[in-house]
Amino acid sequence: MKDTGKSTTDPRVIGELWEVICERAAHPDENSYTSRLLRDKKGIDKVLEKVGEEATEFIIAIKNGVPERTTEEAADLFFHILVALRAANVDFKEVIHELERRRK
Are 82 and 20 in contact (CB under 8 A)? Predict the structure, then answer.
């Protein structure tokens, strides 16, 4: 992907995604991938398996030098990390606070 210098991205999308994940956890929908992950019979292990799988795919995409795949796998990894945080009852705000603390 070529950087055009214009930013059309909105970091709020991560917060909105977190809200959807929390909504799926509170009100499961059998048609929702997120709900199925959070309700899997393996429990949190299922989500953690997905985090490991996506992390591996992310690493391979970078090693292979394929920017499009790297972007896709990074998005998958971010998503599954958020689901894992919810499955572990860790609030995403705490992660943001920790990042802010480290930035100082």
Answer: no
- Cα angle 13, 14, 20 (rounded to 5 degrees) comes to 90
Please name the residue that has the structure tokens 């995403």: 92
Q: Is 99 helix (H, G, I), strand (E, B) or coil?
A: helix
| H helix runs in 1-104, sequence order | 12-26, 33-38, 44-64, 67-87, 92-103
- In this structure, CATH architecture of domain 13-103: Orthogonal Bundle (1.10)
Question: Domain spans of the chain?
Answer: 13-103
Model pTM score:
0.87
Block means of pLDDT (10 residues each) for the chain, length 104 residues? 56 93 96 97 97 98 97 98 98 94 90
